[in-house]
Amino acid sequence: xxxxxxxxxxxxxxxxxxFITAFLIIYDIVAVNASYFLALWFRFDCRFSNIxxxxxxxxxxxxxxxxxxxxxxxxxxRLYNSxxxxxxxxxxxxxxxxxxxxxxxxxxxxxxxxxxxxxxYYAFGAFxxxxxxxxxxxxxxxxxxxxxxxxxRSDVKNRVMIIGAGVAGTMILRDLNSSDKINGDKVAxxxxxxxNKWGRFIDNVPIAGGxxxxxxxxxxxxxxxxxxxxxxxxxxxxxxxxxxxxxxxCEIMSLPGIYQIINGDVTASSLKAxxxxxxxxxxxxxxxxxxxxxxxxxxxxxxTGGGGxxxxxxxxxxxxxxxxKLIIFxxxxxxxxxxxxxxxRSFPELDLETLIGSxxxxxxxxxxxxxxxxxxxxxxxxxxxxxxxxxSPCESxxxxxxxxxxxxxxxxxxxxxxxxxxxxxxxVNPTNxxxxxxxxxxxxxxxxxxxxxxxxxxxxYPLYEHYDESFDENQVGLEAPVKTExxxxxxxxxxxxxxxxxxxxxxxxxxxxxxxxxxxxxxxYFMTIPEAVSLVLEAGAYAKGGEIFVLDxxxxxxxxxxxxxxxxxxxxxxxxxxxxxxxxxxxxEKLYEExxxxxxxxxxxxxxxxxxxxxxxxxxxxxxxxxSELMDVCYSEDDEIRDYVQKIVPTYHPAN
Length: 656
Fold this sequence. Notes:
Layout: H1 2-11, H2 16-43, H3 53-76, H4 89-114, H5 119-150, E1 158-163, H6 167-178, E2 185-191, E3 201-202, E4 205-209, H7 214-220, E5 225-228, H8 235-246, E6 251-254, H9 259-263, E7 272-273, H10 289-294, E8 300-304, H11 309-319, E9 325-330, H12 333-346, E10 352-356, H13 362-372, E11 376-379, H14 386-391, H15 393-413, E12 418-424, H16 433-453, E13 485-491, E14 493-495, H17 501-510, E15 515-517, E16 523-524, E17 526-528, H18 529-542, E18 548-551, E19 557-558, H19 559-569, E20 580-582, E21 602-604, E22 610-613, H20 620-635, H21 641-648
Parallel strand pairs: 1-2, 1-5, 2-4, 5-6, 8-9, 8-11, 9-10, 11-12, 12-13, 13-18, 14-17, 15-20
Antiparallel strand pairs: 3-4, 6-7, 16-19, 18-22, 21-22
């Protein structure tokens, strides 16, 4: 029987709150009538026999119309639509203003149409009505409050500190206090840097001090969980606070962004675990969407290495901005398959091609470029692992230098409009073959750009490692007078990318340690994958030809500090639960990376975090010939490959 009734209600789209609304309307009808009857009764000494027949008659005639008017005002003021479990001062104001409006109506129309009642009747009636309407609506909150007051200390599993006494912090506090789903979390204190709030209370929870008192209050209130709710704080302030909290050993959760306040979505479930990226504290790169993505709209875009960490993020952001066609090109089919499936789910209307092949294969590249004619190429395919490339230097040159040259040549040959090379700060004064190969890649695209600008395309000729392919210096010929704009984007280490130190540390922590750091003083510039991709896309918008874009990556990070923070975020104590050991610098590794070579300088762009590196002058024709010779050397597996590279890249000084 009950199930049939429930199905009928569901069919009629009747929900639980409809019953609550009906109950409140019935209650309000009774309350409005009772309020002014009690007022009349009080006026005549609480004796019904003393009430003047004239006054009682006027009350009985006017009260039906007044009741209908009051219910209408309550409906307009949304007294039947609010969730009273979360009622706040706004709901209190709604009750107050609706009571004022109905009281004025009662005074005016009772006096004009019927009879002027005693002043005490109006005063007591308005008071009783306000009290009755308010009490029923806030009674649920009162019941919850009394329940919380009765909760014993033994029921509290987590004693919580909230950082931020603003709107977001208050909303999280009230959500914790009113939610049955978040059992065991009890807010013990609030931290805020505004000294005017110190010593005051929000919902009976003290604001105990600023960030300098976090350690003291963690011990004082026996805190084991910290909720950070400062979405509008600057990245540097948030980083400082996160670093302090990270030293306490408490579990840390953070509200991701201010947009949740705007959307009204701030609840305890909105909080996320703090990650190592949060501790960087860098100002975000502001991308001018119209300028940045305008050149992608309606274009065919090819991403080499599209299955990698950087390449796949480039594909995601491009897919969201209406390309005519997106082509993913990668030699590793598993990664290519993963990003293909993700994009097909997220963007079912996207015209997507996923192709397997190597950037070393000139015939495969020729086939792809001739068939799809991409307008834009993002060249992310590369070998990037420094120690592995030190052991296989010829492979670094084959894949990075020769692969870049062949892809760039195909772009020129088939009229591609823009070619964006993904480079690295390891290309600056390199001490390893990987960095030297990426510097050579930069020099290749700069050479192509310079020769095209000088109408010397005939100096760019194809490279073939296949013995059955005949060399033809005249095979360059552009099919249309399109000059490809070549640029390179240089940035530091990317958190979470393949080969990044962070996944390595996480794996070592999961295995119980030790965490191995090469040197106690080694430092690196870090950025997140979205930041890196934002820079790449910005470079594509700014491209005029031949530039190397460099990101202002903020302050460098000591790797050992990064390791300690990861250990703490994992819930362990560094050097107690998880040991840190130093393994010594690896082959080709530097203590620090540089952004520029001595001969380079910086020019600012519209984005203050992105700069253009002034190119070092060199002869592009000689470079192209040198690359051709270098290809022969690397394919012959010559052990002296580093010496040949050093002749072409004078800033390359191999580490012992």
